């Protein structure tokens, strides 16, 4: 089964009509570190992403992505980067021993549910993911020339805040937690660059208050103002940290991807722009548990499904309580597209 998924991954088609091919600056490898927003198959078979109905839109069955289809890595790797680098979505680290072409476009070290620090999920945090990358480099899978023409993408921290609050962290003390989080994240980003990676794209965190699992409990049909203020504070601190890192490196090595604004723009949908996606009720997820005791993908002890899905996942921005649908990620990518020139 895993070998079959490996070959499906390698055959991932470039199906996006909006790509315009322009001359790039020689990036040939993409290395990904992060959580479920960019994980394309590293979690084990017990994880939700390997259960039906995940993958129902693409490739038609569960494939290790936390969505009904493609996730952000696929759009950035196969669309944005391929238009001027020739990079497709890189192979998951877990599949590294399954084929000769494994090194082709780089490697994805992201694990769903993880963070900068340890979270509620027992999977490699950011530091450990970087250590896995170091081990791969020690095997000489990538040359110094590969690294010099590589770019890294980092998507982490949302799960850190959920873990902080689950551990009885308070809103009053979260600025102190954010400071420690950004400090460790910055050290990790410096480490990635020091290992030879030429450019590092860092995703801010999404509007936490707009996630269905948050808004449904606090503010639906509106986003939670409190949770979004946490995300905004984090992103402001991240921006300052990246500015300092770039000043210290005397180059524009570190680039922030404004996921927060991209989410908000995609969910609001511009009525006066024909051809763009429109989500009638963006805070309503497509796949949900049959009741509050269940989540998308859950079954009972007899194997009977305890979830329900919307008729058309393409009409929903969110696939489940946390993750965008393929259509949602497409909209986020479209909102970000005009700023991606900073990655060149």
The average pLDDT value, as a whole number, equals 88
Oligomer: single chain
Rg estimate, integer Å: 19 Å
Protein structure class? alpha/beta
* Number of H/I helices: 10
Describe the protein's architecture and organization.
The chain is of the alpha/beta class and 344 residues long. It is built from 10 helices and 8 strands. It has helices at residues 2-10, 72-81, 126-138, 144-148, 158-166, 174-194, 212-218, 225-249, 259-268, 326-336, and strands at residues 29-34, 91-92, 106-108, 150-155, 199-203, 254-257, 287-289, 307-309. The strands form 2 sheets. The chain has a 6-stranded parallel sheet. A two-stranded antiparallel ribbon has the order 7-8. α6 runs parallel beside α8 (225-249). Residues 6-11 and 13-24 have low confidence and may be disordered.
Q: What does the secondary structure layout of this molecule look like, with pairings?
A:
Layout: H1 2-10, E1 29-34, H2 72-81, E2 91-92, E3 106-108, H3 126-138, H4 144-148, E4 150-155, H5 158-166, H6 174-194, E5 199-203, H7 212-218, H8 225-249, E6 254-257, H9 259-268, E7 287-289, E8 307-309, H10 326-336
Parallel strand pairs: 1-3, 1-4, 2-3, 4-5, 5-6
Antiparallel strand pairs: 7-8
